[in-house]
Amino acid sequence: MSPIVEIDNISKCFGSTRVLEGVSFTVRKGSVVAIIGQSGSGKSTALRCIDRLETVDSGHIKVCGHDVTGPGLDLHQLRRDVGIVFQSYNLFPHLTVLQNIMLAPRLVQKARKPQARDTAMAVLNQVGLADKADHYPSQLSGGQQQRVAIARSLAMSPQLMLFDEVTSALDPQLTGEVLRVMERLAADGMTMILVTHEMAFARKVADEVIFMHRGRVWEHGPASILDAPATTELRDFVGNGL
Ligand SMILES: Nc1ncnc2c1ncn2[C@@H]1O[C@H](COP(=O)(O)OP(=O)(O)OP(=O)(O)O)[C@@H](O)[C@H]1O
Ligand SMILES: [Mg+2]
Questions:
Q1: Which listed ligand is nearest to 48 at the C-alpha?
Q2: Ligand 1 pocket test: which of 45, 165, 216 has the largest number of ligand atoms within 8 Å of its C-beta?
Q3: Whose CA is nearest to atom 4 of ligand 1?
Q4: How far apart are CA 168 and CA 206, in angstroms?
């Protein structure tokens, strides 16, 4: 299948710190790629470059047909095609769940209210929270809020979803709820790139695993590389992570 993301030799510094160094990988449509690695290895930065939340110093990125690193990028269209979910949910506290989800389709896609409402209910169903439509975020658990944040992204019908440690702030039970939603999304064919510390989840759901170390792609392959690391760095990482 054709790549939906093509990252070609990107490098980036923050001041004098080199954070990404010659990172290259591609993501096929419909596949799930897990990015793992120690704190500070550049995982979030690499993910944020895909959505142009960060710019690169050199190299090229193509995402869903957009030349992300080229001139004339339509940032709005890129952001419509790519959904991103972070560890923090960033829901509006004064809006209900339904209103939170309807906001972007109404403002960005200029969707009419009944249509935006239908879409919002459909994505709420997808994350198993249709019964919470009229609740406020403060009335939900962390896991439920994170599922609303995922639903909010899905309401824009993205072609690609990026997840950056979306379960890190949750206790194990709530983590499970969120991971199940992500697993279902993957099974439904969503293309996903996820930064995660959940090795069991990566093993189960990821088609490919990218191990980043010191700003580089240190190992890249099927999830089975976690069971047979080629480098001492990945062996140490997996050993510590279990
Ligand atoms: N906006 C920034 N300004 C300066 N330095 C930054 C910035 N963002 C990240 N860095 C640095 O870049 C390096 C990589 O950060 P990044 O957030 O990509 O790591 P990470 O692999 O996601 O780590 P973690 O697992 O802790 O989230 C770190 O040394 C970090 O301090
Ligand atoms: Mg990070």
A1: 1
A2: 45
A3: 14
A4: 18
Tell how far the Cα of 173 is from the centroid of ligand 2, in angstroms: 22
Residue 114, domain member (yes or no): no
pLDDT tens per residue, range 100-144: 999 999 998 899 999 999 999 999 999 999 999 999 999 999 999
Domain assignment present for 179: yes
Quote the Cα angle for 69-55-32, to 5°: 75
Atom of ligand 1 nearest to the CA of 48: 18
pLDDT digits (tens, 9 = 90+) for 165-191: 999 989 988 999 999 999 999 999 999
Q: What is the pTM of this model?
A: 0.95
- Per-chain residues with Cβ under 5 A from ion ligand 2: 44
> Do 84 and 153 touch, CB atoms closer than 8 A?
yes
Among 179, 157, 153, 156, which residue's Cα sits nearest to residue 166?
A: 179
Structural domain count of the chain? 1
Q: Is residue 150 part of a domain?
A: no
Using the atom order of ligand 1, give the atom closest to the CA of residue 44: 22
Does residue 199 belong to any structural domain of this protein? Answer: yes
Structural domain of residue 170, as residue ranges? 5-90+159-239
CATH code of the domain in which 15 resides: 3.40.50.300
